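Re: How this chain folds, sequence and tokenised backbone to follow

Filed under: protein folding, tokenised backbone structure, sequence and structure records.

Contents: The amino acid chain and a row of whole-number tokens, matched residue for residue.

Body of memo: The sequence and its backbone structure tokens, given next.
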Amino acid sequence: MDNEMSGFYKRPNLDEEDYYLSPEGYIIFTEKYHLKRGYCCKSGCKHCPYGFDKKTGQNKKNQ
């Protein structure tokens, strides 16, 4: 597999306040990171500042 073609080898420039690691080792993005990104990915992120609810598929803040 060509490493240049894989998205896993492209790392964005992240600041320390953009994420933290869970006890299991997963990257958890902070509200600050989501606001910097500028849009909701609609994945049900733990710190979503846009209020997206994965169960209903809608933004809570827009209701």
Remarks:
- The CA atoms of residues 43 and 50 lie 11 Å apart.
- Strands lie at 19-21, 27-29, 52-53, 58-59.
- The helical segments are 31-37.
- The chain has one domain: 14-62.
